Amino acid sequence: MILFGHPSGNPNSHHAALAHWEADSLEAFCVPWFPEKWELTLLKSIPGLKNEAERLSRRRFEPLAKAPKVQGKVREWGRLVRRRLGGGEGLSYEANDWLMKTMAKECGRKSVTAVHSYEDCSLWQFEAAKRLGKGCIYDMPIGYYGWWQKKEAELAKKYREWLPPEGISSSRWVRPEQKRKEMELADVVITACSFARDTIREFFDKEVKLTPYGIDLPEQMDQKPMRDGVFRLVYAGTASVRKGTPLLLEAWRKLGWKDAELVLAGSWQLAKPVEKRLPGGVKYAGQLSHGQLMNLFRESDWMILPSNFEGYGLVILEALAQGLPVLASTATGAVDLPKSEAVRPFEPENPDQLAEVLIRAKADRDKSLSQEARRVAERCSWKAYRNKVQEVVEPLV
Fold first, then answer.
1. Quick check: helix, strand or coil at residue 4?
2. Domains: count for the chain
3. What is the mean pLDDT of residues 340-358?
4. Which of 43, 258, 328, 382 could form a disulfide bond with 334, CB atoms 3.0-4.6 angstroms apart?
5. What is the CATH number of the domain that holds 353?
């Protein structure tokens, strides 16, 4: 039986847990808070907590409503209050520590044969599992941190003027040594894309299994609205060096298009002055709700994700499901998707290739790629993901 855990609950972790549940091999789903319907209703009724309630509602996943769980709800209510009072990234690491402590304890159940958990929240239960002779399944939704450390140093020099005072990212809460130990203890590593697999293999001689993510498709694709003559490209993700935003903006500036628009949707992690001097035709939309982003997808010609370091990039599938073709770097899951004109991978940090990809996409805007994009998404189901997870972990059950 598999003891499974995640510090919050997101689509890929929900479907991983469901894979074990469907195979009758789930001992328990360890998660700080799997909210009940009445809890979400209560939160929505409290003034000022509507947004928190909407965020927490994503932690509830109906197919797992009756699955056995181990939760820490009292602590989570406290974290909710502290987040409202301005708590930062440290709260996420508290959830990680709760999960490790809880799974290390629950690992002692006689029926448990293996534990399955994620980067940054697996060390203590892996150590406990090893002492008890049980298996360790390590789930990596993004590339290995050691690889990113090297790339980050290169990019920090190259884009010094683009960075905020704190640099590319804060390292206050990062635990590189824990990440290394978790990887060393793992019996099998699961990841969703070949880029992440390759970053792991650069540092470890590990068995790494690919389990590509899926998407819940809307029953039918909404009809695209009537468009003006402007070519619209949407960038969906944090505006940051890691995500490749500077290269995209530089390429856009050099192209100098007058009949094109680039919309940046997501939080801002670049220097503030950069936002004030965006190239012509670039609009910063800020953070959007899921519904707003889907509407933007339907109003656009292409989505672009020029990341330097990524995992699968579920937003790619979300765009394709809306009939929006995608331009994405090879540091995402784009290269693992079925070959299609609606998915065009390119190398990260390659300005010439990026410019070529953008020019070709603009030239092809009149091509009917919407149905082709949708067909690619239809071939990427969560059911296929769950089947693959079951296949990978079966020897450890």
1. strand
2. 2
3. 94
4. 328
5. 3.40.50.2000
- Tell me the per-residue pLDDT of 52-106, one tens digit each, with 9 for 90 and over: 778 788 889 999 999 999 998 877 777 676 666 665 666 677 889 999 999 999 9
Collapse the DSSP code of 25 into the 3-class scheme (helix H, G, I; strand E, B; otherwise coil) and give the result.
Answer: coil
The CA distance from 227 to 259, in Å, is 13
Range of the domain at 331: 231-378
Distance CA 392, CA 395 (A): 7
Q: Answer yes or no: do 188 and 283 share one domain.
A: no
In a domain, 307, yes or no: yes
User: b/e for 331-354, b at 16 or more Cβ within 10 A?
Assistant: bbbbebbeebebbbbbebbeeeeb
Question: What's at 88, amino acid-wise?
Answer: G
Q: Is 70 exceeded by the pLDDT of residue 203?
A: yes
Reported pTM: 0.90
Based on the domain organization, do 65 and 195 belong to the same domain? yes
Q: What CA–CA distance (Å, rounded) separates 341 from 151? A: 30
Tokens of 294: 């889907």
- Which parts of the chain fold into alpha helices (H)? 11-22, 37-45, 50-57, 73-84, 90-106, 123-131, 145-158, 176-185, 194-201, 245-255, 272-276, 290-298, 314-321, 351-363, 370-378, 382-393
Asked if 277 and 206 sit in the same domain, the reply is no
Same-domain status, 293 and 323: yes
Q: Are residues 262 and 197 in the same domain?
A: no
* DSSP conformational letter for 277: T
The verdict on residue 249 lying in a domain is: yes
